[in-house]
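DEPOSITED CHAIN:
***
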Amino acid sequence: MIKKCLFPAAGYGTRFLPATKAMPKEMLPVMAKPLIQYGVEEAVEAGMDIMAIITGRGKRAIEDHFDISYELEHQIKGSSKEYMLKEIRDLINRCTFTYTRQIEMRGLGDAIYKGKVLIGDEPFAVLLADDLCTHDGGDGVLSQMVKVYEKYRCSIVAVQEVPMEHVGKYGVIAGKEIDDGLYMVDTMVEKPEPDEAPSNLAIIGRYILTPDIFGLIEKTEPGKGGEIQITDALMAQAKEGMVMAYKFKGKRFDCGSIDGFVEATNYFYEKGKKES
């Protein structure tokens, strides 16, 4: 039903300088796999096979990663290391990768709007690669959200509870719980102060959006930080129709931060040891 997944990947990754001076933050490896590959695998699991990636200057490594390296293939062909390329080969063969650039960093809403030319007039997913999610033994976050979309056919944001002192880092929702962990949104605020936050349900980097969101982003004025905020466009969509917030099952690592990145690395390292 939903075939396209949009990856906003134009940001500078300043929290990881100097590593991200010449390398996209989306290419930072957790174990031996870059963050964006985890995201693409999650999208594929959810039934998507067209990956629309919003890039910027200095992001060519992303395009190269999802392409054949003939020199490398030739070098390791028949060796004990050949198996290490199996996962990425499978993704390259299974998916279509499309790209466009966000010339100026004007916020997540603007990055998503830049994807209109790649998405067209159909519902689509959005995945922020530095939010690394896993659900051992169960469906990935996007797979869970697709099931919700199949029932309600509206935009959906993934949320999780965070400590109140951390709500200022996120978009925050409030609404009526209509099913276990599923909320009909009536309030959505970008990076509120703790005493102004409507709840502690924070939006994380997974969305399913209906195509009318592009028209709403067009009408959205710059908000918090002078940027085009997707939360403002989604709030307008909630007033006109319906937006759901889904408290997903699984674990999320904020790999846009040093602490979250180290936590994810330790988690997947221990997981790998148990599976080997």
User: Anything to note?
Assistant: Residues 258-275 form the longest helix (18 residues). The chain has ten helices and 13 strands.
